[in-house]
């Protein structure tokens, strides 16, 4: 750093320097500013920290320096994008009740069962994201759902947002704990059974946004209703009739997004199904987005979107071109209201 730049940086107020520090993770912060001078060191010990562990940040001296120089109360965000379980446990153990957000990637279910208990018993985590990893030749002996919502539920009682991706399709167990602050929940690869529905209805009274990936094997009685949900995201690969029967469980929906994967070529029945759903079962629906994977031919889509119903909804169509057949326009999304984007990775 040249003298002029050094002088300009030093002239910044303490408040502004602390704001600058917010844009750096703890590794870069320590590596760049530690031991610069007494004033900077004092400010570093006041900063709110985002600890990001990934494969490129592997200097043992820096990692040990973070643990020895900073204090647990400074760690507000912890992101673990490493497959080193020992290191992950070490940094999770370093946190206390001030930890606001926890994200874990590249960890198998058995490793997660070692990492989660390392959290402080006074944890008040608001945001949780876990993407369970696959380990070749190793089967998970612990259910990630049970770890979070049953065995260590006290650690997550303050959750507001949870995004959890199971590697193996999971069956939910019966949950006794109530999560009163949970507003958004995204669950990938979990069977939509009556047990899971009981959890959503009884343990998440203030849940407003839900993202799930059901399968056609999931069967639920029409008696189930999740009236607290206002926003729903379904990633689906089967027939639209089943989607319709599932959506009836959410009578208070305002916003609905469907990722329709491997769609059938016949759209003749979808028009009537959508019309029936929105007019009879979803009276409050203001926004509907259907994304197609792969894209559908525009001519096929026209047969689906004709009629007074769609005209009244002011349906919008997002087109693309088939790169293999430039004269064949394709549709990748239709929507009314504002277009909704993914809730799976919120």
Automatic annotation (TrEMBL):
Q: Which intervals hold domain F-box?
A: 6-53
Q: Where is the signal peptide?
A: none
Name under which the protein is recorded: F-box domain-containing protein
Q: Which organism is it from?
A: Adineta ricciae (Rotifer)
